[in-house]
Amino acid sequence: MPLTLPSTLVADSSAYICGVSIANRIFAAVYDPVSARWEQKYGAELKRKLLAAARGRVLEIGVGTGLSFPHYPEVDELFGVEPSEPMRRRALHRANELGREVTLVDAPAEQLPFEDESFDTAVSMAVLCSVHEPGRAVRELHRVLRKSGRFLFLEHVRSPHERRARWQDRLERPWRVIAGGCHPNRSTLQTIEAGGFEVTELEQGELPAQPRLVRPYVKGVAVRR
User: Fold this and answer.
1) Sign of CA dihedral 212, 184, 193, 87
2) Nearest of 173, 15, 29, 151 to residue 87 by alpha carbon
3) Sheet strands side by side (includes 216-224)
4) Most buried among 39, 112, 172, 212, using CB within 10 Å?
5) Could you give phi then psi for residue 167, rounded to 5 degrees?
6) pTM, whole model, 2 decimals?
7) Residues 6, 113: contact at Cβ < 8 Å?
8) CA distances from 183 to 101, 187, 214 (A)
9) What's the rounded mean pLDDT across residues 10-16?
10) How many degrees, rounded to 5, is the angle at CA 10 between CA 52 and CA 192?
11) pLDDT above 90 covers what percent of the chain?
């Protein structure tokens, strides 16, 4: 079934929203340079391993500047949701450089402009830490996935160790300010399971070369129940 999107939601090289805060522009401008070394040494491999399971019509929420695009296998269609115009513009540029066809859509993860059961695979990487309503975002992913569709996730989470989790709670507010709205203390795995998914593959550990506040992570595959 073809997807029908309002034309104002689809990004192209000639139409972008002008009313963007300076903070958003700065964050988008520094995102790639700041993360380049870590991405080259660690992030690219993590993405490649996760995305190897992507199949069919794929939706990734919070694509940012499109760092994931080089690591997708061949899929039927790739859609990326990104509410930040400066990020979306960079993602479009990266897709064009790669020669990769990606439909970029301006929308929040909590309100996806797609029909029910439209996708075979959904992807979230370091996104559920910063959306306003993670539970609602997961329920939206559940809604747009076909039955038995797969949700691929890589997210940093609340530490399982009580002492570090308390520090995550104490530092949540200042970290959120300096890290673009990121919450370091969310119990994302439980949110995924509560959103109608069954986790079938799971890896838990510590992200290398990251601040201790955001090292605990979960990576895996969940199936729509």
Assistant:
1) negative
2) 29
3) 103-105, 77-81, 57-61, 119-125, 145-156, 216-224, 197-206
4) 112
5) -65, -35
6) 0.89
7) yes
8) 32, 10, 9
9) 38
10) 45
11) 84
Is residue 8 predicted with pLDDT exceeding 60? no
Q: Is 187 helix (H, G, I), strand (E, B) or coil?
A: coil
- CATH number for the domain formed by residue range(s) 7-224: 3.40.50.150
CA separation, residue 213 to residues 23, 40, 81, 118, 146 (Å): 23, 21, 27, 36, 35
- Could you write out the DSSP letters of every residue in 105-122? E---TTS--S-TT-EEEE
- Reduce the DSSP state of residue 161 to 3 states and report it: coil
**Residue ranges per structural domain of the chain:** 7-224
Angle at Cα 53 formed by Cα 125 and Cα 115, nearest 5°?
A: 70
Q: How large is the C-alpha radius of gyration of the chain?
A: 17
Q: Which of 170, 112, 168 shows the shortest CA–CA distance to 142? A: 112
